[in-house]
Backbone:
């Protein structure tokens, strides 16, 4: 019965979405939209309530292991720990799409609840656009991936879940990423509404800004967490593989980062109107492309866990409809958007334009690299594109972007002089130069690009705190603090990436129990290999005694795990985090003669990569808090006036 | 000009869309075949890993007899499984060169002492550069190179007993 209730909730949500689209469109066309807008707001709320209800019902079905539901039987098992039963609800195709559309509906409800600044017509059009997107994905759920389909007769137990996904990281990674992906839908809907209503200006930008910031924070957290998760779960010691699925999350982030900066220009200086609209469309388009790439299985990836090519065509049709439609609307209408304020070549605006251009070029490069195998396939060639391509193309542009990130915040709005900029940049440039010389000598000149990255990271760190110079810290606006922290986070993350490239040590060997290996400053002794068991797996576990110099040894226990349902092998890396880096160990296969394959890494300061990502997200959060506070204050003053 | 620019995003999207539709209609083959098959062996100059064996220098061995090039590693378990087949190939007269991927002298010496040594030369490929330039995606892989120095065949994965005649035939054809 419960499953049927879930399906009913989904259909009701669909009905409300259709009503929201129709009434919203009518309100946008009507002369006096305010009257009908109240109705649209309420319908948006109801749509979110029913979508959320359907999702909660699915979680309940997974939590109670209701095997008469096909999706649960295929993806869960009664012996699974509760956390993974619940996470199982979105660890599969149907469930993840339901989560996607739920977030979409909840975001729409958020707009209807909190948005007070926009003109009534534009807001009605925004909600109508949001509903139009939702309807397509409801249809996708109903016709191509019903999460509540029954299985008759019900099996005695389920078929389990991909053991790679039985990890706390999974419980939070996809939902976070989806919040970011779908949060960008709001920016998209705002842009579509602004184009339809020819209402582009600072008010529109200020309304859009918190949504972009919020979505961007979730994307940042999602990518950072996903990178760390792949790092310790896949057991390759790498933190970014330029894999299609990772690129799928990176592309919306790049677009959202560009949008975040351009929307500020539009909000404060009323410049970059058409460009901001374009970016808002591109950002959500990239989210949809990302979802499509992951869900359709069209590209070969290490991360795609729930793929189905037959559903790809449905998703692709939706993609064509929404992206194509929005771009056509852009082409037809953007000519009527008048030019906003202009600015000089050396100014904060110009630096932000540079930031936008460089981010867009990186986005283009990543998109080309990700889709090129499809181009080659169309011409009858099989190939895959890996890290070397991206390192040669995206990295140099990213370095220019880092330099721009250092200089941009030190420029004044509208007009500034090159000389003044140079004098403000003296210290960061000096720091970059000195650290380049130092690390070039230290690393032996093996990887000059990584040395440049490291040196720039130090320079950027200095430049990013410079905007606080001679300011009263207490009275510095929160968005400025947010910018400082986020830019500092970029510097920290870059330092971690460069340190990992320059100073990591790797050792690969087949060793017998009692043998010792050396990696970096550590001596690693294989003390024992013995069997061990968990709730739904058994494993061979190595006991490694790891010692640096003469300090106290510690023990690491990497495992080879065997899951019974479905039968799968995974290797569980054992990692220890020290103040100056991580020791990363992986147990491989036995050779049948008493020796075991062991992979060891010493990765100095690698943790900075994710710490930096966290700082970037924190910076976003601080800025968001500042924006919301000033928005709230403005609303209160308006109420008093 | 400005009109064109405005419609450019839509145009680009239509092209990408068409490509993706094409990719969806014709799903790809997931095995990564090297694009180097049928092409001359790339110039490799790998230092020797063992004191008593030459490294690999393609400029020195370009002319002459057809050879096999085995990409292996001492830490690779399937490489242990294919070792007897490589010995059989050697006994049948095949000349086998090797590229040791991410390996050390001591480990390779121990590996060859345990599993037999079918190799004429062993090149040291610590950074996996040579492996990449060959278009090899993992260990073990075996390439057949003809007398003119052209790669004529690629065997992905360990060599099973039933693969030996096929590889010998390829080697015979490569003369």
Residues:
């Amino acid at each position: 019965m419960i499953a049927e209730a879930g399906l009913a909730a989904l259909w009701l949500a669909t009905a409300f979405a259709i009503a929201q689209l129709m009434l919203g469109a009518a309100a946008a066309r009507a002369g006096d939209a305010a009257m009908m807008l109240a109705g649209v707001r309420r319908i948006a709320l109801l749509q979110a309530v029913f979508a959320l209800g359907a999702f909660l019902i699915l979680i309940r079905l997974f939590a109670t292991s209701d095997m008469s539901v096909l999706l649960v039987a295929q993806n869960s098992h009664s012996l699974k720990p509760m956390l993974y039963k619940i996470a199982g609800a979105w660890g599969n195709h149907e469930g993840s799409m339901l989560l996607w559309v739920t977030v979409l509906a909840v975001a729409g409800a958020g707009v209807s609840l909190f948005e007070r600044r926009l003109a009534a017509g534009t807001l009605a059009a925004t909600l109508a656009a949001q509903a139009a997107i939702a309807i397509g994905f409801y249809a996708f759920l109903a016709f191509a991936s019903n999460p509540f389909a029954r299985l008759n007769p019900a099996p005695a137990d389920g078929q389990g879940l991909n053991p790679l996904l039985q990890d706390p990281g999974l419980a939070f990674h996809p939902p976070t990423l989806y919040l970011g992906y779908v949060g960008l839908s709001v920016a998209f809907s705002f842009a579509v509404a602004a184009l339809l209503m020819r209402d582009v200006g600072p008010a529109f930008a200020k309304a859009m800004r918190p949504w972009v910031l919020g979505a961007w924070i979730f994307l940042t957290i999602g990518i950072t967490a996903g990178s760390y998760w792949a790092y310790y779960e896949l057991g390759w010691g790498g933190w970014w593989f330029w894999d299609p699925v990772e690129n799928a999350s990176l592309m919306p982030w790049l677009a959202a980062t560009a949008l975040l900066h351009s929307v500020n220009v539009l909000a404060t200086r009323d410049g970059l109107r058409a460009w901001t609209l374009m970016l808002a469309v591109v950002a959500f388009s990239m989210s949809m492309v990302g979802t499509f790439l992951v869900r359709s299985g069209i590209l070969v990836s290490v991360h795609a866990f729930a793929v189905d090519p037959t559903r790809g065509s449905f998703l692709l049709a939706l993609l064509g409809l929404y992206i194509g439609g929005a771009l056509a609307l852009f082409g037809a209408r953007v000519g009527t958007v008048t030019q906003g304020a202009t600015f000089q070549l050396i100014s904060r605006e110009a630096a932000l334009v540079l930031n936008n251009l460089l981010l867009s070029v990186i986005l283009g490069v990543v998109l080309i690299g990700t889709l090129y195998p499809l181009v080659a396939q169309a011409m009858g060639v099989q190939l895959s594109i890996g890290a070397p391509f991206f390192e040669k193309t995206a990295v140099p542009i990213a370095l220019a972007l880092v330099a721009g990130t250092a200089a941009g915040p030190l420029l004044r709005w509208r007009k500034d002089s090159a000389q003044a900029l140079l004098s403000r940049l003296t210290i960061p440039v000096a720091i970059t130069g000195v650290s380049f010389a130092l690390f070039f000598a230290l690393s032996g000149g093996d990887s000059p690009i990584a040395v440049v990255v490291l040196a720039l990271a130090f320079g950027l760190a200095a430049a990013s705190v410079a905007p606080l110079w001679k300011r009263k810290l207490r009275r510095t606006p929160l968005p400025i603090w947010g910018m400082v922290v986020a830019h500092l986070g970029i510097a920290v993350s870059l330092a971690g990436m460069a340190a990992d490239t320059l100073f990591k040590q790797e050792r690969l060997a087949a060793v017998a129990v009692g043998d010792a290996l050396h990696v970096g400053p550590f001596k690693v002794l294989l003390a024992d290999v013995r069997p061990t068991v968990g709730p739904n797996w058994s494993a061979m576990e190595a006991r490694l005694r790891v010692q640096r110099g003469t300090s106290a040894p510690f023990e690491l226990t990497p495992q080879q795990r065997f899951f019974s349902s479905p039968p799968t092998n995974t290797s569980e890396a054992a990692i220890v985090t020290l103040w100056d880096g991580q020791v990363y160990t992986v147990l491989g296969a036995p050779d049948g003669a008493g020796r075991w394959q062991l992979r060891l890494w010493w990765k100095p300061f690698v943790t900075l990569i994710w710490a930096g990502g966290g700082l970037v997200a924190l910076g976003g959060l601080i800025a968001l808090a500042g924006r919301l506070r000033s928005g709230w204050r403005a609303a209160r003053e308006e109420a008093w006036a | 000009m400005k009109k064109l620019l405005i419609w450019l995003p839509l145009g680009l999207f239509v092209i990408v869309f068409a490509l993706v539709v094409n990719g969806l209609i014709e799903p790809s083959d997931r095995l990564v075949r090297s694009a180097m098959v049928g092409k001359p062996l790339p110039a490799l100059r790998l230092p020797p890993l063992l004191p008593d064996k030459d490294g690999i220098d393609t400029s020195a061995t370009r002319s002459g007899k057809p050879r096999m090039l085995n990409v292996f590693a001492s830490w690779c378990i399937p490489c242990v499984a294919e070792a007897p087949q490589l010995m059989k190939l050697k006994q049948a007269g095949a000349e086998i060169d090797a590229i040791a991927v991410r390996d050390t002298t001591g480990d390779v010496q121990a590996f060859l002492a345990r599993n037999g040594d079918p190799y004429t030369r062993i090149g040291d490929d610590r950074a996996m550069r040579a492996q990449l330039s060959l278009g090899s995606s993992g260990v073990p892989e075996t390439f057949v190179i003809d007398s003119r120095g052209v790669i004529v065949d690629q065997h992905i994965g360990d060599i099973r007993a039933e693969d030996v005649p096929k590889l010998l035939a390829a080697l015979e054809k490569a003369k």
Summary: The longest strand of chain B covers residues 119-125. The interface with chain A takes residues 3, 6-7, 9-10, 13-14, 16-17, 19-24, 26-30, 32-33, 35, 73-77, 80, 102-104, 107, 111, 114, 132 of chain B (CB under 8 Å). The first helix of chain B runs from residue 2 to 25.
